[in-house]
Design brief:
Blueprint: H1 2-9, E1 15-16, H2 42-62, E2 72-83, E3 88-97, E4 105-113, E5 120-127, H3 165-168, H4 170-175, E6 179-184, H5 185-188, H6 219-234, E7 240-250, H7 252-263, E8 269-273, E9 288-289, H8 291-297, H9 320-325, E10 332-337, H10 345-361, E11 379-380, E12 383-388, H11 396-409, E13 416-421, E14 427-432, E15 439-442, E16 449-451, E17 453-458, E18 461-470, E19 476-487, E20 490-497, E21 500-508, E22 520-522, E23 526-527, E24 538-541, E25 544-547, E26 552-556, E27 564-571, E28 577-582, E29 586-591, E30 624-631, E31 634-639, E32 642-649, E33 668-672, E34 678-689
Parallel strand pairs: 5-6, 5-7, 7-8, 8-10, 10-12
Antiparallel strand pairs: 1-9, 2-3, 3-4, 4-6, 11-12, 13-14, 13-21, 14-15, 15-16, 17-18, 18-19, 19-20, 20-21, 22-34, 23-34, 24-25, 25-34, 26-33, 27-30, 27-34, 28-29, 28-33, 30-31, 31-32
Helix pairs in contact: 6-7
Bound molecules: alpha-D-glucopyranuronic acid (GCU).
Length: 694
């Protein structure tokens, strides 16, 4: 961008890279009415000043957006619950603007994380070169709309699949529990000056009108309008949380994102990436690209009226800090890049800082940094800002900060599932609800999950208590006090039980990309008991394996398995108890519970996680059979011929869990330290899928 720009500047002046030429300027005060009287309180702002500023941006900068409502029609073109190797649900939706057969339309591409509770928060943004460029996923439809690229005569090409994947990082967004919604900006209005004949402008022409008036919308206005229509669709999609939509945009699309966020208060977070002139950068600095320059190179972007200010930015009745003030008190994030001087990084920071007084008037924290923070040292309050190394682009560094910011303002940082390592082969688990009001804990109270009590969350740390009553005579009660804090995506904490304190640490439970979706093939069945390594405390006799003592150590297969069907026959005495360990992650409970109510700790349950639908147990002393099909976290169990668990998803590790690496293969374990138990006919059949990732 920089290099191309530099070549162009030689012929077309209208830019400045010399800070000493910026000179003195006075910014219009967002907290003073046009007539000079001060804005005294939040009410003055909300009811009067905000509208006054919005009108000025409409008539003088971006142009008025038509208010007439267009009837929208949406059609799901395609969807799949096992996109991105099973991590996401993909949906491609065509949104028609109007009922006419030839109505213009925009194609939305949506990815939602499969492992996150519905409805999910999303990042929404337009893309520059078609939906098929944001990820290499071959199922993404290639647009037929006009392309800015001339290489293929303005036609999108198959070759460009995934070309901008690094600007979207869809997999990483999904892994953090967010969805992505995107659309091609050219679907809304192709980015060239054609006198507003294509795109959505003509939808609003009446009475022989053929182009917008001088105070009406240009192309940036059209893109912003399109973003609001995407929001209209989002409000109808039950899987997306319309109250948590983070709108982002890069460069010219960043200008459109800010303008959309200023007009439409449904956008809960607004993010400007390198938006520069006409975006986050102050026009009055006239640094990098200038008003005169942008209106000359891109005459179709702004309202006709904006051209009055070519070379006279000090006469614009507003400046860009006021655009961002219109977003208040909603969270706003602005970021710059060191090598993107064209976009005026300093001007972008000062723009965000200029919005701060309004955020404060509205009772929020505003922007914590008062001077431009160092490179790659984000400052995050209700307004966030960072400048990173590198050029005009969107990078994983930018995305990481946006997601951290969204986690922070939506208080999601601690929400979700955490696999924790307590050392000495012990693992713990924390699952915290999205609203941070409840959760459960595994560890310190046996293999069971315990509900969090007296949960207190503040900033990045949490505290709670758990207890467990053991049904011994007399009953024994264990109580544990847990404290943890989040540091750079690691949860670091400790558990105190009586005098003992156990320290632990961990990360988010991994996304498992495998689902029981019909694509699985059975491999070769293996007999397990014959191949178990020798062990003193167990005895194999005529195909029956029994523990010699009640303290027999769990018998593990040497082979590790990932996705499989496991068949086990077992016999328990009255009151007997055992278990089957699955990959060192989960346990299927074996217990004499004939005729008792079902529970998540009963026979055939996924221990502490999933209760069987019905009790299909046989009386003690009889051989029982259990079939376990495990793919990723999807489990199906058939007990004594009755399907008791049907493709349920295991919420996380528990029971015989011994590793935080839930995405790895692991052994099968047969438990022998809870009392006498016998096993026979244990077989395992690995499952493989053509669509699974290595
Ligand atoms: C040009 C233009 C900028 C714009 C950028 C982009 O450089 O001058 O205002 O932000 O293109 O959209 O990438």
């Amino acid at each position: 961008m920089f290099a191309i720009g530099a070549a162009l500047f030689a012929q077309t002046p209208g830019f400045n890279y010399d800070e000493s030429k910026v000179g003195a300027y006075t910014l219009p005060d967002p907290l003073r009415f046009a007539n000079g009287t001060p804005v005294r309180n939040a009410d003055d702002w909300r009811t009067k000043r905000r509208a006054e500023i919005l009108r000025l941006f409409e008539s003088e900068v971006y142009g008025k957006t038509p208010t007439r409502k267009i009837k929208l029609r949406s059609e799901v073109l395609e969807q799949s619950a096992s996109a991105l190797g099973g991590a996401a649900t993909r949906r491609q939706v065509r949104l028609w603007f109007g009922e006419a057969a030839n109505a213009p339309f925009v194609d939305l591409l949506i990815y939602l994380p499969n492992n996150a509770p519905r409805p999910v928060p999303v990042f929404l943004g337009l893309n520059f070169a078609g939906n098929h460029t944001v990820n290499a996923d071959p199922a993404i439809r290639v647009t037929k709309s006009w392309m800015r690229e001339t290489a293929n005569n303005h036609v999108a090409s198959e070759k460009d699949r995934g070309l901008s994947a690094g600007r979207w990082e869809v997999e990483k967004v999904i892994a953090r529990g967010y969805g992505t919604v995107t659309a091609y900006y050219g679907d809304i209005d192709p980015d060239f000056d054609d006198g507003f004949q294509n795109g959505v402008h003509p939808l609003f022409y009446s009475d022989g009108k053929t182009k917008p008036a001088a105070d009406e919308w240009g192309t940036i206005g059209a893109w912003a309008w399109g973003l609001s229509r995407a929001m209209d669709y989002i409000e109808t999609d039950r899987d997306i949380d319309a109250k948590r939509v983070a709108l982002h945009g890069h460069s010219r699309i960043g200008k459109a994102a800010l303008w959309a966020g200023a007009q439409d208060e449904r956008f809960a977070i607004v993010i400007s990436n390198n938006s520069g002139e006409g975006g986050a950068a102050l026009a009055r600095r006239d640094f990098g690209e200038t008003t005169a320059r942008i209106n000359t190179s891109f005459p179709h972007w702004f309202a006709g009226n904006f051209k009055k200010y070519n070379g006279k930015p000090q006469e614009i009745p507003v400046d860009q800090h006021m655009l961002m003030a219109l977003i208040a008190p909603r969270p706003l994030y602005v970021n710059s890049a060191v090598e993107d001087q064209w976009a005026d990084p300093r001007g972008e920071f000062l723009g965000a800082l200029g919005a701060d007084p309004v955020y404060r008037l509205l009772g929020t924290e505003g922007l914590p940094a008062k001077a431009r923070p160092g490179i790659e040292q984000p400052s995050m309050g209700r307004i966030g800002y960072h400048i990173r190394n590198g050029k005009h682009d969107v990078t994983i560094y930018d995305w990481t900060q946006w997601m951290n910011f969204a986690d922070r303002v939506w208080k999601r940082g601690l929400a979700g599932n955490w696999n924790l390592d307590a050392g000495k082969g012990k693992v713990y688990w924390i699952g915290l609800a999205d609203d941070l009001k409840s959760g459960s804990f595994f560890g310190a109270t046996g293999g069971r999950l315990a509900e969090m009590k007296d949960l207190a969350v503040s900033g990045g740390s949490l505290k709670f208590r758990v207890e467990r009553i053991f049904e011994t005579t007399p009953p024994r009660r264990t109580e544990a006090f847990v404290e943890a804090r989040l540091e750079a995506e690691r949860l670091i904490g400790s558990t105190r039980v009586g005098e003992r304190t156990i320290k632990w640490e961990g990360g988010r439970a991994p996304v498992l990309n495998e689902h029981d979706n019909g694509s699985w093939k059975r491999g070769k069945t293996v007999r397990v008991l014959d191949s178990l390594p020798a062990a003193e405390d167990w005895q194999l006799d005529k195909g029956v394996l029994r523990n010699r003592s009640d303290k027999a150590k769990t018998r593990f297969t040497t082979e590790h398995y990932r996705n499989f069907e496991l068949h086990v026959e077992y016999k328990l005495p009255k009151g007997g108890n055992s278990g089957i360990g699955l990959r060192d992650h989960y346990e299927v409970q074996l217990e004499d519970d004939f005729g008792k109510p079902v529970s998540s700790h009963g026979n055939g349950a996924v221990y502490s996680r999933i209760a069987p639908r019905v009790n299909a147990s046989k009386p003690a002393g009889q051989w029982q059979s259990i079939d376990i099909r495990l793919i990723g976290r999807d489990v199906t169990i058939t007990l004594n011929g009755v399907k008791t668990i049907d493709r349920a998803t295991i919420g996380g590790i528990a029971g015989m869990a011994a590793t935080v690496h839930e995405d790895r293969a692991g052994p099968i374990g047969l438990q022998g330290d809870h009392g006498p138990v016998e096993f026979r006919n244990v077989t395992i059949t690995p499952l493989t899928s053509s669509s699974s990732l290595p």
